[in-house]
Write a structure and sequence with these properties.
Oligomer: homodimer
Shape of chain A: elongated
CATH superfamily of chain A: Tetracycline Repressor, domain 2
Radius of gyration of chain A: 18 Å
Number of strands of chain A: 0
CATH topology of chain A: Tetracycline Repressor, domain 2
Structural class of chain A: mainly alpha
CATH architecture of chain A: Orthogonal Bundle
Number of domains of chain A: 1
CATH class of chain A: Mainly Alpha
Chain lengths: 193, 193
DNA sequence: ACAAACCTATCAACTGATAGATAGCTTAGT
DNA sequence: ACTAAGCTATCTATCAGTTGATAGGTTTGT
């Protein structure tokens, strides 16, 4: 692994724990065994480093997710695959979603970093829309968008609260609610039961 | 307003924008017109200041919410009252929920601050449980807990994402889903349709 | 010869925190 | 009524530490 990617890995741990302010060039440098001035060779400014971190995090996340419709063809539910990624963050990584944390701080984030954070959410909503479309349970596009956004918001919120309370309860209830989303929304949006 | 509460007000704006690291004693001091050393008179350490901020935020939030069952008696839905509080943060304050942000950072927060943040969430879940109980739509206690946790997670997540994307869309879809929660959960938990 | 990857040394700025002084108010003792 | 003691809220001055960033030099591989 190159020093550059070692730096990003070290930064990721810190940002997912405490946000943008929770890492310094000196810390990262000493962790990977170089000097702080050398970090500036790879990343001109702190803003650049964090922006690239968020960019690569997004790419890795989406690559790992793969193609939503492929899961359906295998008889798997892509939404369950998606929730498993968040469960992994909570139980294995024991860390926040990088962009969940950056998003919360977005009000005081450098422009490039905020831009990459937005990109993460847009891409994720898009993936979830494709997933719900592939499941072809509901018809209207607005219902699909609604489910996609609700799913993402629920997972980000549940991850944050479960991590804070040191208990998986909120997360488990949230994912149970997502499983019910398919039947739910059809009932309340438009059609009255 | 006393200097102490002015300091807390100034700190709140900054923390709700960028988290624990986004305020300094000097900034607060100069904003309220005293010197940074004097801030230590009111709050021995930064940790103490942030902990008191989170404590008072929680008290103010719950006081403002009032008694959930009282709304039911007035023919109002306390869950809608609750979601309005979050909508106010998004559209009027244009800020995060203080504890939503601190919760995201909880991995690197001083102990006292993390404790107060946990307290916020526990109290809010409790309030929502009372609210869903007062509505007596569903019966089982675990269904009520599930709805309470899901509602909170959804609102915290939706607020964060809507703020980041600079669009109310995610928030609107999330609150619509909460309105559907009553009918939803009964369908999916236990009873099969 | 050249460039990528690193170094040393240093900068100005900012951080939380402390020590010690002061002015003004309140209270208790006589 | 006067004073001594103590509290509240602020100040000046300063500390040691950290921060992101820069200029310019060195090493290493091709």
């Amino acid at each position: 692994m190159s020093k550059k990617s070692e730096l990003l890995a070290a930064a990721e741990l810190r940002v997912r724990d405490g946000g943008y302010a929770n890492f310094s060039f000196r810390e990262l440098a000493s962790e990977v065994g170089i000097k702080s001035a050398s970090v500036h060779y790879h990343f001109p400014t702190k803003e650049d480093l964090a922006a690239e971190l968020a960019y690569q995090y997004t790419e890795r996340f989406l690559t790992s997710l793969g193609d939503p419709s492929a899961y359906v063809q295998q008889g798997k539910n892509p939404i369950e695959v998606y929730t498993e990624h968040f469960r992994h963050a909570l139980l294995v990584d024991k860390q926040m979603c990088l962009c969940g944390l950056l998003g919360a701080e977005s009000g005081s984030l450098p422009e490039k970093v905020k831009h990459e954070t937005k990109r993460f959410f847009k891409r994720n909503i898009n993936w979830l829309e494709q997933a719900y479309t592939s499941l072809h349970i509901t018809n209207s596009e607005s219902e699909i968008t609604s489910k996609a956004m609700t799913t993402l918001a629920l997972l980000e919120g549940a991850l944050m609260i479960s991590k804070t309370l040191d208990s998986i309860d909120v997360f488990e209830h949230a994912t149970a609610a997502i499983k019910g989303l398919a039947e739910i929304m059809g009932e309340t949006t438009g059609r009255k039961k």
